[in-house]
Structures are given as C-alpha cells and as structure tokens.
Amino acid sequence: MKFFEELNKFSEAMVELPFAAVNGVLGRDGERSGEQDLQQARWKAYDAWVRLLNESANGLYASPEVGSSVGRAMEASLKWQRLGSAMAGAFFAALWPAIGLPSAAELTELRAEVGALRDDLAMARLEAEEARAAVVALPADERRTNDALAAMWNGAWQPDKAPFVRKGGEDAPAN
Amino acid sequence: MPQPTKQPINAIAGYLLDGAMRTLDGFKKGTHATISDPPPVTPYRVVFESGKLRLRRYAASGKAHRTPLVLVYALIKRPFVLDIQKGRSVVEFLTRAGFDVYLTDWLPPNASDTWRGFDDYVNGDLDKAVRYVRAVTRSAQVSILGYCFGALLSLVYTALHPENVRNLVTATTPFDMGARELPIYKIVDAMTDESMELVTRVYGNCPAWMVQSFFSAMAPVHHAIDKYVGLYRNAERDGFADQFDLFERWMNSDVAMAGRIFREMSGDIFKRNKFARGEFEVGGRKARPEQIRCSLLNVVGDYDDVVHPSSSLGLVDRVSSGDRRNLTFPTGHVGAMVSGAAHKQLWPQIGAWLGERSN
Known about the structure:
Number of strands of chain B: 10
Largest sheet of chain A: none
Number of helices of chain A: 5
Structural class of chain A: mainly alpha
Oligomer: heterodimer
C-alpha cells in the first residue's frame, strides 16, 4: 500500500536527520559542507512528511464511512440553513416593505428585467453585425439594389441612381 | 541640514497600503464579492456582451491568421490566469503567434441567474459570441481553444454547432468522468442528488466558497502548509514571490456557479457521466462527442491532479474527426497554462498545430 511506502520513506528520512545533524556540527572546511547536508536532510524529511500526510488524506477520502459521514453532515447542515433562511426570509419579507424598502424578491425581479433588456440589446447588436457581414458578402449588383431599396425605405429616393429604373432612350431588358 | 531619506518611509507606506488592500480583499471575500483582477499583461477591448458573457478581443500582433480564435475559459475562477504575467501569458503567446484572440470572460451569476444551465451558456451566450466573431471577422468558421471546464463547454458547443468550428483545442478536459482516479471523487460520490438540490435551494447558486472548498479539499496539505513552505524555500529565486502572489490571487478568485449548471455538472456530467456516454441533453438536443467532426488537438497534463489524464485521454477515440490527436506534456493542471516549461515547449506546439489549420 502506498501509505506504508511513504511511511517507510519518512522513517528513513527521520533516521538520516540526526546523522546529518552530527555531520553538520563536525563539518570541516575543504569537505562538502556539513551544514548543506543537514539542510538537505531536513528538506528530505519534510518532503517525506508531506507525502505521508497526502497519502493519509487520500486514505481518508477513499474510506466509504468518511464519504457517507461528510455527505450526511453536509445534508443536515444544508437543511438547517434552509430552515434558517426560510425564517429570516419570512421576517425580512414583512420588515422591508414596512420601512419602505424593496424585498429581495423584488430586487431579483428587477435584476432579471435589466438582464433581459441587456440580452435584447446584445441580440440587436449581433443581428446588425450579421446583416452588415451579409451585405459585404453580396455581389456588387445585388449590393447596389439593396442600397437603393434602403434609400427608398429611408425616404432618400433618387430614381436616376436606382439600378433597376429604365432611363429615357434605353430599351427595357428582355425577359 | 541633512534631509531624511524618503526610501524607508515609502517602503513602510507601501507595506501598510499592501496590508490594507489585503484586508479589504478579505472583507470583500467575506461578503462573497469577486476579488478584482490584476492589471492585464496584454491590452484588450470588450467588443460584445450578452447574458453572462463579456467578450474580450486581443488583437494579433503582425499579420493575423484568417481563422479567428475563441478562447473559452471556465466558469469557476477569473480568467486572468491566461494572461497572468509577461512571458507566462497564454493570450500574449497566441497574439504573438498571429491569432486574433477572443476570450470569454464569464460574469459571476447573481440571484436572478439561478436558472442558467448548459443550454443558456452554450446555446445562448457562447453561440452568440461565436456568431459575433464570425460576423465581424467575416469568417465562416472559428477555432476554439477551451481550458478545463471551458474545454467541456467547447466540446458541448462543437457537438451542437459543428458547422461553426474549424479547429478545436481542448486543454485538461474533464471528459470521461467514469475514470475515478482522484480520491476526492469518493467524497463527491457520497453526496446525494438531494444534497446538490439543497445547495441550490438554500443559496440559489453554488456559492464561490463552496467551489473553493472543493478545490482546496483536492490537495488539503498543499493548500494548508506546503505552498507556504514552498514560498519560503524559493524566496531567493528571482520573481518567485510575485508569481506566488499573483497565483494566490487567482486561486482565491472563485466565482459562484449558476444553480442549474451546478446541478447539471454535478449530477449529469460528474456522477452519471452523461456526456461521455452520449446521453447528455442540452436544450432538447443530444450533445454527443461523435458529432464533433473538426480537427481536434487534446492537450493533457501528465501530472494533472484536478482532471486526471485518464479522464481526458479517451476523448480522441470518441470524436468523428479525421484529424485528431492527444498532446501530452509533463505538467500539472495549471502548469499547462502558466509554467515556464509549458511556454517554452508546449505552447509553441499548440500554436504551430493551430497555425497550420488557420489559413
């Protein structure tokens, strides 16, 4: 089991630590610094300890008893909170209107309305961008016709510029 | 008369200001407000907003690839981890590689957003963002790069709207939740559907502190002790303390999860593994991995302890794409985004893969 592997590594590191400490005290110049060895041994022990703690936490999570107790505790706490918020809601629902303030439900409704307006605006903007992109994608002739129709719609009608109006002396297009 | 040096006074003032800001952040956190983002590394412009989505545009430096890139971030923390520090910023890398990047900055849900589920996020906000990008860039299709939960959103989107996606990169994707390798899953398994329902009945949305508790419980020793010891051990390394600060800020930037998507995620995706089994229904339509036909690159961290590699690796065998592959790299879940090694070796590979398919 991984927990026991980590426990072994931690025990080994703990055994090494006093030796490294003695080396550190007796460390001489010219050799590898004893202080450095001690520091390394300290970190090795610390890392082994962290890994051991991690494995212990994993072992706890894996236990079905722990899982079900956490689940039950959470459910119970949520039920109590629900009761508490229902009571607080009933109290404040009567209090706010009495002092002339809107209730939480009214504020939520207002936020939803503002949100819906923002969505409408976003949709209009999106449709405008899509329409613009579609116009650019049209062939030049069609674009001219569209422009003329838009001009008619906006009251800026200029027959001589409209592509589909027959000018004097021109033949009607053959059908 | 000698003037008293201003340097120590400045240092003390800075120290006090820093402490005051931290205290303020602590208070803000206590009131469930989202902690503010650090200044961005790469400049951006918000180009579109819809529902719970704010779309940022980071312009490509130099000549841009023809297919724009939509970067889909997760719903559970702030996205600044993708643009956290010069030289370690995914966004910076991608813009330098010639991609016009559009990043989804998901806004935290409030009390009136409890009804938002996968349908609203994927078929609503994300689809509108993709339509917007296609319209303004005049591109028929986009490339999508999703990270973590964002990769799951990208997969569901691509399954439902395959015609809009040319290339898909999924990074550290929680795809097959049947692979129960992480010990914390045993605790989640013990939670009944009633408990999950109760969370949203009591709070409306799943509160940010609950999301954070789940992540802390994944590595309790690391979060309680080891990361601080790590800071002490690496104190001499240049820039380590700053990186640690930024990273901590991100770790504490959890946002709430809208009630409905929390229930769908914990029940349908996590417990019943419906997406991998091809049974996940979004907005009345089945989203099956087999509906994905575009080029797919699936990035997997060998040491990922949030999404175990075995939850991601099977994705490539389930899609219908002809062009698909796994790209594994010896890194962790967040390391794939911020580590120096990932930016030296992993991201150039991702950039090259995308670049070849974006013109």
